[in-house]
């Protein structure tokens, strides 16, 4: 039985009640979300349901989180639509096939990253870039759903075009559709803001009140569907409804992409892979910490990869861990991924027997569900914190969000990544450097501009707080020369390398030339606190050979050497 996941081998009967409860509650929440997110992705509603069965089971077998709820999510749905709408008509058979293949490519990428133990990719995208991307996506999604609230047809590839088209189409607004959509939107907003408080005042336990608030979308779905069905508003008032959803479990089939399709989908698949993985790991880690559990990023890659391959196998589209569902799953008492397996079983039952109940479900209500869900993703708090702490990060967040809103998902996220990397390179190319001296009566050394310290006459001790590479090596050389020009009495230059983790070939050449130049002027070049791996690489080089007696274990030793040498020079011969 060693092939069984660890959580199943160690399963306790006392956990079953919590897993059953969480599985049931998440299913009630997942049904409207699956339908709504399929609509957002431009897919038939049943595709969202298909993506909510096998992927959950696959993740339960390989993932490392005990409470992450995997399935369709808003951001991945938007990215799917962004990738596929230029290639095929939304909702067409070709479009559905491309969505399935997109999920397969993403799944294979995740599995490959997991096999190569590339879990560190979770830290590749900075928090401001992720925050900016999700904020921009939330705005893009919300604006894109307004046409369903008003019951009009609007075409637009970005927010400005969509809003312009919406204004022009206002005279064609369907009053009944607007009433249903507006009422649902208002109910969901008020429920999210006030329902838990009202229920708590009525005596409902706080935990139960919070869970009931999360299930408000299902209430809106049931109520609106009943009203439309009762009065046949789809026929008498032109209310757009979901219509027939094929009943029965999905057929297992694997559609392999051709080389042409692969060339069109690999980049969107990679972006979905990275964003989905980072989002999932962030959610999983935040929940795991509450129970002193640990998340294994490499296992997460395998679990999410298996989930996406399973989604493709069952006719679904890209999936990842959802924030809201995961929080509900956790709060409802889920102890293990069995809660997800129970949810998948219940979803299978719904698809096999109950899809006819969704015929009269208005598109406007699904749109209201999406709008309320995504507006909570707008991350103004991170922007506020970043603006006060680091303007460069704040600008990366804003640029990413604006890029997504104005230029689209792929361009927006790439803009954020490029800006983040640019900020990193710029900071590395302008390292902090400090002339240091000794704190009196200690072996500690600090910046002469910040502390009252003692220096050794004729010794320039410079600490560089960055690895040395092609972008900053010349900056170091220029700083040394500038300091020498300010003090003609310097006879020794000490470079303190305590923060230097690497010296690349360009930096090595600059240091070698600097040592030669200083020697020609009668100035001794010294190194201190060089890390072992860096010294191992320096030792066989020309610079390492020339400086065999001038590399000191500590700054203290270097200062002692300079002081003693000065004393010897002053002693009568």
Task: Describe what this molecule looks like in 3D.
- β3 and β4 form a beta hairpin.
- The protein is mainly α and 573 residues long.
- It has 2 domains: 408 residues, no CATH class; 138 residues, 2-Layer Sandwich (Transcription Regulator spoIIAA), CATH 3.30.750.24.
- It contains 25 helices and 8 strands.
- The protein is elongated and about 105 Å long.
- Helix content is 63%, strand content 5%.
- The protein starts with 5 loop residues before the first helix and ends with a helix.
- α7 packs antiparallel against α18 and α19 runs antiparallel to α20.
- 46% of the residues are buried.
- The strands form 2 sheets. It has a 6-stranded mixed β-sheet with strand order 4-3-5-6-7-8. Strands 1-2 form a two-stranded antiparallel ribbon.
Annotate the secondary structure layout:
Blueprint: H1 6-9, H2 16-40, H3 45-50, H4 54-62, E1 70-71, H5 74-84, H6 93-115, H7 127-150, H8 159-169, H9 175-201, H10 206-214, H11 216-231, H12 233-236, H13 259-289, H14 297-313, E2 320-321, H15 323-331, H16 338-353, H17 363-375, H18 380-389, H19 391-407, H20 409-429, E3 433-438, E4 445-447, E5 459-464, H21 473-486, E6 492-496, H22 505-520, E7 524-528, H23 532-538, H24 542-546, E8 551-552, H25 555-570
Parallel strand pairs: 5-6, 6-7, 7-8
Antiparallel strand pairs: 1-2, 3-4, 3-5
Helix pairs in contact: 2-15, 2-16, 2-17, 4-14, 4-16, 5-13, 6-13, 6-14, 7-8, 7-17, 7-18, 7-19, 7-20, 9-10, 9-11, 9-17, 13-15, 18-19, 19-20
């Amino acid at each position: 039985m060693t092939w069984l996941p660890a959580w199943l081998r160690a399963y306790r009967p006392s956990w079953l009640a919590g897993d059953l409860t969480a599985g049931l509650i998440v299913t009630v929440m997942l049904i409207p979300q699956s339908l709504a997110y399929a609509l957002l992705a431009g897919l038939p509603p049943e595709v969202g349901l298909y993506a909510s069965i096998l992927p959950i089971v696959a993740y339960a077998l390989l993932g490392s989180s005990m409470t992450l709820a995997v399935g369709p999510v808003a951001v991945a749905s938007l990215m799917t639509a962004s990738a596929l709408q230029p290639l095929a008509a939304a909702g067409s058979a070709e479009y559905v096939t491309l969505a399935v293949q997109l999920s397969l490519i993403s799944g294979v990428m995740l599995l490959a990253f997991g096999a190569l133990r590339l879990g560190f990719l979770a830290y590749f995208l900075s928090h401001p870039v992720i925050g900016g991307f999700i904020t921009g996506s939330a705005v893009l999604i919300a604006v894109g759903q307004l046409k369903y609230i008003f019951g009009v047809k609007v075409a637009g590839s970005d927010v400005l075009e969509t809003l312009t088209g919406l204004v022009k189409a206002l005279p064609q607004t369907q009053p009944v559709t607007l009433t249903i959509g507006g009422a649902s939107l208002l109910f969901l907003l008020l429920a999210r803001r006030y329902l838990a408080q009202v229920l708590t005042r009525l005596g409902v336990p706080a935990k139960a009140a919070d869970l009931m608030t999360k299930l408000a979308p299902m209430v809106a779905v049931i109520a609106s569907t009943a009203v439309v069905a009762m009065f046949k508003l789809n026929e008498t008032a032109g209310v757009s409804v979901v219509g027939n959803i094929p009943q029965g479990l999905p057929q297992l089939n694997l559609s392999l992409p051709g080389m042409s399709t692969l060339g069109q989908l690999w980049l969107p698949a990679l972006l979905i892979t990275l964003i989905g993985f980072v989002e999932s790991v962030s959610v999983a880690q935040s929940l795991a910490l509450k129970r002193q559990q640990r998340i294994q990023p490499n296992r997460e890659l395998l679990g999410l990869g298996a989930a996406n391959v399973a989604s493709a196998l069952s006719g679904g589209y890209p999936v990842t861990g959802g924030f809201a569902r995961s929080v509900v799953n956790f709060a409802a008492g889920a102890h293990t991924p069995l809660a997800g397996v129970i949810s998948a079983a219940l979803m299978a039952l719904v698809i096999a027997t109950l899809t006819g109940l969704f015929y009269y479900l208005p598109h406007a209500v699904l749109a209201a569900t999406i709008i309320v869900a995504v507006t909570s993703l707008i991350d103004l708090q991170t922007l506020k914190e970043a603006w006060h702490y680091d303007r460069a990060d704040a600008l990366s967040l804003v640029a990413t969000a604006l890029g997504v809103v104005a230029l689209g998902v792929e361009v927006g996220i790439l803009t954020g990544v490029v800006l983040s990397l640019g900020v990193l390179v710029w900071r590395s190319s302008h390292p902090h450097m400090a002339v240091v001296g000794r704190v009196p009566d200690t072996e500690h050394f600090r910046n002469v501009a910040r502390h009252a310290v003692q220096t050794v006459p004729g010794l320039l001790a410079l600490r560089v707080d960055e690895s040395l590479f092609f972008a900053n090596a010349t900056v170091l050389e220029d700083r040394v020369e500038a300091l020498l020009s300010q003090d003609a009495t310097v006879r020794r230059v000490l470079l303190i390398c305590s923060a230097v983790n690497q010296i690349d070939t360009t930096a090595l050449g600059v240091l070698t030339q600097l040592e030669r130049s200083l020697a020609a002027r009668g100035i001794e070049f010294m190194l201190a606190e060089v890390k072992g791996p860096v010294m191992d690489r320096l030792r066989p080089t020309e610079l390492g050979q020339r400086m065999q007696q001038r590399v000191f274990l500590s700054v203290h030793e270097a200062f002692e050497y300079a002081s003693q040498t000065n004393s010897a020079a002053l002693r009568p011969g």
